[in-house]
Amino acid sequence: MITSLSIKNYALIEKLAIDFSKGFSIITGETGAGKSIILGAIGLVLGKRADLTSLKNKEEKCVIEAQFEIGKYNLREFFEANDLDYEDDTIIRREILPSGKSRAFINDSPVNLQELQDLSLYLIDIHSQQQTQELSDENVQFKIIDAIANNAEVIAEYQKLLKSYKSDRSKLNALLKKQSDAGKEQEYHTFLLNELVAAQLKSGEQEELEADYEKLNNVEIIKESLDKSLAIANEEQFGVFHNLNEIKNALQKVAPFSVEYQKLFERITSLTIEFDDVSKELENCSEKLLNDPAQLELINQKLQSIYNLQKKHQVSSVDELLQIQSDLGNSLLELDNMDEEIALLTKSIEEKATELDIHASKIHENRVNAIPKLSAQLVSILETLGMPNARFNMELQSSETYFQNGKDELQFLFSANKGTDFGLLKKVASGGEMSRIMLAVKAILAKYSKLPTLIFDEIDTGVSGEIAIRMGEIMKEMSSTMQIFAITHLPQIAAKGDSHFKVSKSTVGDDTLSELKLLSQENRIIEIAQMLSGANISDSALNHAKELLN
């Protein structure tokens, strides 16, 4: 439960520190006095987003701090999971800096807003008028039924399985689309692959073929040039080889006379050996060179095949064609393997669907058993709230769809009076009836919930008189198991509280301030009398206030 709240530099509040007790606490005040500011401050502590408009003085930071007594609520596991220091008396602090940045702390450990919001689910439920309207929402109605049905654990297991089921379905759909898209191109890709395979491509062969083609295509010119070179080299009297030998013989005679001549002799000897080798190589090339039109045509055909494939695939080398061939092969192989993967996913989906059906059936069964209990308790409470003929008809229909909380569809039907047909809650219930139904729901849920604190923000809208007294009594009963706050304009409800706080607004110079004070018994009588008769308090109003308090 919340034991204290301190606020500094927030909205119309300059500085405020207040302690709270267990039981039933009342908060009253004129419209616009600042009750919503108190709720806003608590909301910030619970992780709601803030901005610079929250600051009263834009030059100073806003600090809101709340202390919670949580020793009885088994929250150690949450603190350990989030790496936080656990304290039975836990302090949550929220700071809003003039720069607009916001910081949050749990027991002085910095936390993000998500962690704060997660913890707040175990601390306080703030019931607003908007939440009363949400009672017509099917998801809210299911949450009420599931709380009575004790479905939390089985729904958690169902949702975990549903997440995995949806993930598999998504993968399967993606695979089927991929298979469909690939199937449309499979025949063409197979043709392309077969065409490349038939070409029997080899890395580096294009360069070799192009070289061979040039030789065969110019064989006559090459033959003529080689033979002419051989003739010049080997002519008996005037050939190059004969002349080189003549030079070598001449230098050999003078080589012994000096080192310079010796080197020249060695060089011409080396040149003669090298030229002899070149001459033999020319002769060899000439002998091997044949005019082969058939081979030339084969090489030409292979080259044209390569060039055509390169043009078709928009590449410029055989290696790139070989890579395309490999990719096409892998793609077609992947398509073959896809059938196996689809079969495995389909089997997994079917197995998970079977498990989901088992969980959904259990959820449905629990709901069927819980609905009569919920309906009976609602009717009983509403009878005391001036709705003796209220009836509920909660119809569950199983569907084939996997919803987030099972496979059920719900019709939450209501009739307030005898002789009237059942209708959807949002269409047939008035504002005052919705308020009473919501209070009845909260009163029932309080028996099943371990939530420490519940704040009612004007849940009494649309009621008065004896009904208001009974609403106050119900909230009083709820406060025996949890801390209850009621923000109210009705004196009948205000009189039921164990403690009474008043929000007031005052003007100091050019400044407007809001404050929250715990009322003494005497001041409480005056406050309730004012709620009864207005600013001019009559003796009868004072006496009525005392009667209500007694």
Automatic annotation (TrEMBL):
Any coiled-coil regions, as ranges: 199-236
InterPro entries per the UniProt record, alphabetical: DNA_recomb/repair_RecN, P-loop_NTPase, RecF/RecN/SMC_N
Location of the RecF/RecN/SMC N-terminal domain: 2-506
Keyword line: ATP-binding, Coiled coil, DNA damage, DNA repair, Nucleotide-binding
One Pfam family this sequence matches: SMC_N
Function: May be involved in recombinational repair of damaged DNA.
NCBIfam families from the UniProt entry: recN
Family membership: Belongs to the RecN family.
Protein name: DNA repair protein RecN
Species the sequence originates in: Flavobacterium ginsengisoli
